[in-house]
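Practice problem: predict the structure.
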Amino acid sequence: MWNVLLSFSGLVALIQLIFLPFFPESPPYLLLQKEDKAGCLKAMKRLWGEGNYQTEFDDLMKEKAVTKGTKIMNVLEVLRERSVHPQLCTMLLLLLSLQLCGLKIFETANLQESIIPYVSLGVSISELISIVFCSSIIDRFGRRVLLCGGYLLMALILVLLETSLLLSDQFFWLRYCSVILIFLFIIAYGLGP
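Answer:
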């Protein structure tokens, strides 16, 4: 039944595709990108209900004034911009290493083959938890705190993971600790980087 499980994400995407046209544009997008003040206020009222949103609107106007001279670039322009190449290389290396290290960790942990589907499901659930948790705390703590905290937490988890993998031959239960640490690593990655 893996094909049904994998097709579930397609079902969610289809539902979003059907209902998305009925939602208003984001108020910041309407004001900052489209410069539509009336549309921005209308979207605020439609999304948040009737009320006075002058404070939020003023904050957006301040943000617009700060970013007035900033050019918005598309993906190809970002890739051509030399000043962002170090950041892009760092992100690319991080993403590639994450893709490659997961297979090696499961292999090193000597997990039973019957448990691998559950581990894969656990990885997906960890990603979902991190997305929900991050979106609820990012406004409270800010991106900088989440990035620094996420990287520190990831480093600590990687040290614990390496230790558990090294000792997994001596202590059988550490194999399962490594799986839990992988889940925690994914959550920490989702919260920060």
